[in-house]
Amino acid sequence: MSAAHQSNPDRPHPDKWIKVLPEGLYVEPGGFYIDPVRPVERAVVTHGHSDHARPGNRHVLATPGTLAIMRQRMGEGVGGSLQALEYDESLRIGDVAVRLVPAGHVLGSAQVVMEHAGSRVVVSGDYKRRLDRTCAPFEPVPCDVFVTEATFGLPVFRHPPDLGEVQKLLHSMALFPERSHVVGVYALGKCQRLITLLRAAGYDRPIWLHGALEPLCRLYGSLGVELGELRPATVAAKEDLKGALVLAPPAAVADRWARRLADPVVAMASGWMRVRQRARQRGVELPLVISDHADWDELCQTLEDVGAPEVWVTHGREEALVHYATSRGIRARALALIGFEDEDSEGVTGGAAGGEAS
Amino acid sequence: MNRFAALIDALVFMPSRNGKIRLLVEHFATTPDPDRGWALAALTGALTFREAKPAAIRELAATRVDPDLLALSYDYVGDLAETVALIWPERPERANSLPPSLNEVVEGLQAAKRGQVMGLVEGWLDTLDSSGRFALLKLITGALRIGVSARLAKTALAEWGRAARPEVSVDDVEEVWHGLTAPYPELFAWLEGRVERPASGSGAGFRPMMLSHPLEEEDRAALDPAAYAAEWKWDGIRVQLVARGGERRLYSRTGDDVSGAFPDIVDHMSFDAVLDGELLVARDGVVAPFNDLQQRLNRKTVTAQMLRDGPAWVRLYDILFDGDEDLRGLSFVERRARLERWYGAVQPRRMDLSPLVPFDRWDELVALREGARENGIEGLMLKRRDSAYLAGRPKGPWFKWKRGALTLDTVMMYAQRGHGKRSSYYSDYTFGVWRGEELVPVGKAYSGFTDAELIELDRWVRNHTTRRYGPVREVEAGLVLEVAFDSVHPSNRHKSGLAMRFPRIHRIRWDKPAHEADRLETLAAMVVG
Ligand SMILES: [Zn+2]
Ligand SMILES: [Zn+2]
User: Fold this and answer.
1) Is the keyword Plastid in the record (chain A) (predicted)?
2) Which of A160, A258, A284 sits opposite B424 (nearest CB)?
3) Ligand closest to CA A340
4) Does the pTM exceed 0.80?
5) What is the CA radius of gyration of chain B?
6) How distant is the Cα of A168 from the closest Cα of chain B, in angstroms?
7) Which of A343, A353, B58, B465 is most buried by a 10 A CB count?
8) pLDDT tens digits, residue range B456-490?
9) What is the three-class DSSP state of B151?
10) Cα separation of B117 and B460, whole Å?
11) Using CB atoms within 10 A of its CB, is residue B220 exposed (0-12), middle (13-18) or buried (19+)?
């Protein structure tokens, strides 16, 4: 199929019309960028994490959920005109038919499905495949070129069932009832997802929040995501936080902020927690492998599900996924997009504002 | 195996000693025999079976996983057991392939012949989850080092046992445990109050040692010199030599079996007695620096070269058993006489008697102690002449009187976050001294200051950071730390060529300019021997 592309001038290969420029991934016949890292005239934004949704673009197209998140996080700086596109509605931009399809990553997150000159290209943005009560589930869309992330693109990353990880947390709280448990979570997505997982596991006590987590929880609540009783930890008395469950941005849990807590058990909810050495470097006592990205098996499964003969890898650990795809007879290459943070750097750059989810 | 794996996982991440004890107590309380006993043995290094080589594990993994993906993953993770545990393909659950119990694993490995081990391991890896695989691979490679000492395990056992037997002490546990073999069903039955205390004393087990208190100046004023004997405190490690019924063991102060590392001592234990002494490295009767002994510690096997370069020696302090006769109830003076008589009769090789230091008045000892700067002497021991050999650290009969510590003015260079309660503070400091115009690091300390001082130090670090490397901050050369340490030795592991023993912060010299701190030459002049 792809060989036919190259020899047919009426059906140009997608690498003729989708390009990697310094601003990001550029869709030439539509005149727009997807998740640009610098301000541009026209941007299509897959989801609200700060390395994908940046301020200052003239026109922004995204799902209503993503736009609400962007307004919440950026206020005035969000950009010029904002245009909402519901999931599965089609819109023509220039010479490209654009559709946004759920990516299952965080509330509002979308894959960008584009049709042009007889080819269909899907840009996944960040995605995951497992159940998340805070957002619509990922939908595989058959395509000619699948442009995928690979944050956890190594076969050692296999996220265990979420319920088991939540049970680990509840077990620790039973074993150390006098200590508070503070869990590092990204402000957008991970925080709200962990809360819904805890509620589904039957935990109905109040959950205490670091101030940086409050606005997005309120927003999720107003968009219909039920989170139960939440209380501000920042103003709480030390005595109240004994035995309590506290959520905070990753950078705050090991820092001075955590001193207000009673002898805290430091936990972190992230796909990186799968690797013990990484968890220990972060000073984590209770690692919880809960991720908003596809793990290795899900990345591989998704390549099967979309059935694309060609795969481009945007960011993450591309080498292993390119190797795997090639071994399955799929044409694959790394785009080496820059500007998408490796979560490694989070501790230093300060994750309170959100940063990349994991 | 699943319970054991969960325990290992929790222990790996638990920073605090009390937390580790809590995890162990929970494990003993909720895990049946014999698995809890095997877990205890595995954690304290008391299990022996045919181990697997890392290369064999890598080869096994390559039969299941694309070798390129395995290599990329190993590069990223950095630990082979962990890589294989994470990457091993999960099998769909089948009703007839339950994960093995720890008992099955241990018995299987103990019975396995050469060439059978990897076959067993492969079958187990297929039924375990990733935590179970990690625990199994660490177990079979003998790399289960997760910060649980024998002492910690015994403390946890005693704490758990007190629910049924309120009178149980750590020393009781120690004594009973060492008479038994894994998986210790009698030990658990006793601590649960189901059977009487198992007999001890006949086996080659460890007997809890008698320990001393540091001598404070005000204590000494109250002591009658005539009631005490004095002897040198040697700078090695306290050991117990047990030779009973054909078995020979060398134990550390905490009851860890170190026999394997010191065959040159064990070979000469052709007697029937239990002795207390100091393990040293000595050449032609001259004690070598502690560093030389360090080279021989924590080794499972020793090479001929190590035996030649660092010959071990034991300087005897005391005798606990002569044959079957328990001497621990006798007074120090009586035991000393028995020790001298025993030594004269047996004449063991590679051992000598630690001489008594005669004195009449304290000031004579003060002078002797200050004068003793040669290798191998850490200070003096004072022992009440009428004291029986008691387990633990009773206050009064024995004192250690270390010679004065050395001190040096150093400059803080790096600070690192602490662990556990201190994980939000910069509490571990690397300090250096001047060599020409530059600072060279000479040591690291994380104790010796108060909580209030820690808060000030932490603030200083945050306000004077020049660079960050993960959890480490480099700071301006602006704060002088007066460091105390017991001695200093040449070392090729440090850039400065010197290593301090037991450095701790003595005083924070907020007042002193950094350029007035000490120079490397000053430290080098403090090297002894
Ligand atoms: Zn991303
Ligand atoms: Zn994201």
Assistant:
1) no
2) A258
3) 1
4) no
5) 26
6) 10
7) A343
8) 899 999 888 888 887 889 998 889 999 988 788 88
9) helix
10) 55
11) middle
For chain A, percent helix, then strand, then coil, each to nearest 5? Answer: 30, 25, 45
Q: Both ends of chain B: CA-CA distance in Å? A: 51
Helix (H) or strand (E) holding A192: helix A190-200
Active-site residue set of B? 233
R_g over Cα of chain A? 21
Secondary structure (3-state) at B1: coil
Taking the C-alpha atoms of residue B502 and residue B511, their distance in angstroms, rounded to an integer, is 25
β partners of residue B441: B432
- Mean of the per-residue pLDDT values of chain B: 87
Residue pairs spanning A and B at CB distance below 8 A: 83
d(CA B415, CA B393): 35
Instruction: Report the complex ipTM.
Output: 0.89
Identify all chain B residues contacting A280, using CB atoms and an 8 Å cutoff.
Answer: 12-13
Whether B82 has its CB under 8 Å from any CB of chain A: the answer is yes
Q: What are A252's two structure tokens?
A: 């705050």
Q: Give me the residue label for tokens 């099998």.
A: B91
Mutate to test the interface with A, among B80, B424, B451 (most CBs of A within 10 A): B424
Can you give B68-93 as a three-state secondary structure string?
HHHHHHHHHHCCHHHHHHHHCCCCCC
Tokens 């090479």, residue located: B303
Sign of the torsion angle spanned by Cα atoms A143, A145, A147, A148: positive
| Alpha-carbon gap, residue A200 to A17, rounded angstroms | 45
Residues with Cβ within 8 Å of residue A80, at least 6 apart in sequence: A57, A58, A59, A60
Alpha-carbon distance of A158 to A297, in angstroms, equals 7
**pLDDT (tens digit, 0 to 9) for every residue of chain A, 358 residues total?**
444 444 566 789 999 999 999 999 999 999 999 999 999 999 999 999 999 999 999 999 999 999 999 999 998 888 889 999 999 999 999 999 999 999 999 999 999 999 999 999 999 999 999 999 999 999 999 999 999 999 999 999 999 999 999 999 999 999 889 899 999 999 999 999 999 999 999 999 999 999 999 999 999 999 999 999 999 998 877 788 889 999 999 988 877 777 778 788 999 999 999 998 788 777 788 999 999 999 999 999 999 999 999 999 998 888 999 999 999 999 999 997 776 754 433 332 233 333 344 5
CA distance A300 to B447: 50
Rounded-to-integer distance, Cα B489 and Cα B493, Å: 11
| Structure tokens that stand for A53 in this block | 């949704």
Q: B465 in contact with A at a CB cutoff of 8 Å?
A: no
Compute the C-alpha angle A253/A256/A262, nearest 5°.
70
- Alpha-carbon torsion angle B27, B33, B38, B39, nearest 10: -10
**Residues 6 or more apart from A349 whose CB is under 8 A from it?**
A341, A355
- C-alpha dist (Å) from residue B96 to B92, B93, B99, B118, B119: 12, 9, 10, 21, 18
Q: In the block, which residue shows the tokens 């109250």?
A: B222
CATH of B213-402, one of 3.30.470.30, 3.40.50.980, 2.60.120.1440, 3.30.450.20: 3.30.470.30
Contacts 24+ apart (CB under 8 A), B25-32: B25/B156, B25/B159, B25/B160, B26/A175, B27/B3, B28/B156, B28/B157, B28/B160, B28/B188, B28/B191, B29/B160, B30/B3, B31/B3, B31/B4
- B140: helix, strand or coil: helix
Contact B129 A156 (CB under 8 A): no
Going from N- to C-terminal start, the domains of chain B cover 213-402, 406-524
